[in-house]
Design a protein that fits this description.
about 375 residues; alpha/beta; four-stranded antiparallel sheet; binds pyridoxal-5'-phosphate
Length: about 375
């Protein structure tokens, strides 16, 4: 180091997180009245009215520090899950500033730089890649099958006794693929005893039969499995940043020791507690999202697109071959104020992902797709 602003080699080689243009920037660039964002798998119904009321009430408490380690939210989650699954006790629950923070901390406490490796599929959620890189941990990625289903043999073949963690996203992002629970249970059994299997269930509620497909129902017999969930998607609180996880008890304890004590703020904590109680909003969101994704899926198929089956609140698709590039198609949507996700960042430049919107947004999106593919706009 030569100057006071030099940084470590690992930071120097880091690239910043690339986001698309903001809604305001798109609006300005294309001179639009209205912009619709169907790109980040946010809840199109917004924040539940009950939660909004709680946020307004809690705002006046903003001068206070939150209670360290968010015990009220931990208790709420323990009682929510403990009713169904008595082995989910408060000692196993860990909360983060979004799942993003949980992923960061898992790398911090579980991996030794330049020694351990972590295994996942390719493509995968960007945060696994960023955090592995930041923590100097080798990330080994097994290719998905060409239909985006999981090849567990390929995944297992990358695991060795230096594999500290295996990440599986279920349902997967960006494809929406929901894997078989039995395959995950077999995977857990096949891993070396020292390896932690993390199932990222950020979208599991949208499968519609959460209790049947989540590995939560099996945690009592799977000591090497951790589950990650979030308030960002089905609960509509992406902007407040609350994620949670169910971890082996000893690991949860270390995570709490390492976490910045106030990382989940007081408004986020209270909002999450009320969101958890508002079963009605959650069920409505799930119901409407499933209707919406089916409609989008059928609509895109009717336009000749290749559509991948989704158990989530988004749909991955390819436009008909030979029509135009995914990029051109995406730009035409942008010009009309519709923001969807190009999957170039996932190294899938020919694929697109659209988040389920409101009924009106879904319909308008489909009719725009039709006009674009018929070269009408
Ligand atoms: C959206 C998403 C999350 C949630 O992240 P937060 O930090 O909780 O907002 C986690 N995992 C995957 C794969 C996601 O797509």
């Amino acid at each position: 180091m030569k100057t006071p602003w030099d940084v470590s080699a690992q930071v120097a080689s880091f690239e910043s997180y690339v986001t698309g243009l903001s809604m305001e920037e798109i609006q300005e660039k294309y001179g639009l009245k209205k912009v619709v964002k169907m790109a980040s798998n946010e809840n199109p119904y917004g924040v539940s009215p009950r939660v909004l009321q709680c946020i307004e009430q809690t705002a006046s408490q903003s001068f206070r520090y939150p209670q360290a380690c968010n015990p009220r939210l931990v208790d709420a989650l323990a009682s929510y899950f403990g009713k169904k699954y008595p082995y989910i006790t408060r000692d196993r629950i860990f909360i983060g500033n979004g799942s993003d923070e949980i992923i960061d901390l898992l790398f911090r406490v579980r991996t030794v730089a330049n020694e351990d490796n972590v295994v996942t599929f390719n493509p995968c959620f960007g945060m696994y890649i960023t955090q592995a890189k930041f923590h100097g941990c080798e990330l080994r990625q097994a290719p998905l099958n060409s239909d985006f289903t999981f090849n567990f043999d390929a995944l297992l073949s990358l695991v060795d006794n230096k594999t500290s963690m295996v990440f599986v996203t279920n349902p997967d992002n960006p494809s929406g693929y929901l894997t078989f629970k039995d395959d995950l249970i077999r995977l857990a059994a096949a891993l070396p005893k020292s390896c932690l299997l993390i199932i990222d269930e950020a979208y599991i509620e949208f499968a519609g039969n959460e209790d049947e497909v989540s590995l939560i129902a099996h945690l009592d017999s799977l000591p090497n499995v951790a589950i990650m969930r979030t308030f960002s998607k089905v609960y509509g609180l992406a902007g407040l940043r609350v994620g949670y996880s169910i971890l082996p008890e000893q690991l949860a304890e270390y995570m709490w020791r390492v976490r910045l004590p106030f990382s989940t703020n007081i408004i986020a904590q209270e909002a999450a507690i009320v969101a958890l109680e508002d079963e009605n909003f959650k069920q409505k969101t799930i119901e409407l999202s499933i209707i919406g994704r089916n409609k989008i899926g059928v609509g895109l198929k009717n336009l000749g697109c290749q559509v991948f089956p989704s158990a989530s609140n988004f749909v991955m698709f390819q436009i008909p071959k030979g029509s135009m590039t995914a990029k051109e198609f995406n730009t035409k949507l942008l010009e009309k104020g519709y923001i969807i996700r190009s999957l170039a960042a996932y190294k899938l430049p020919d694929y697109l992902r659209v988040s389920v919107g409101t009924e009106e947004q879904n319909d308008e999106f489909l009719s725009l797709c039709e006009s674009i593919l018929n070269n009408l706009i």
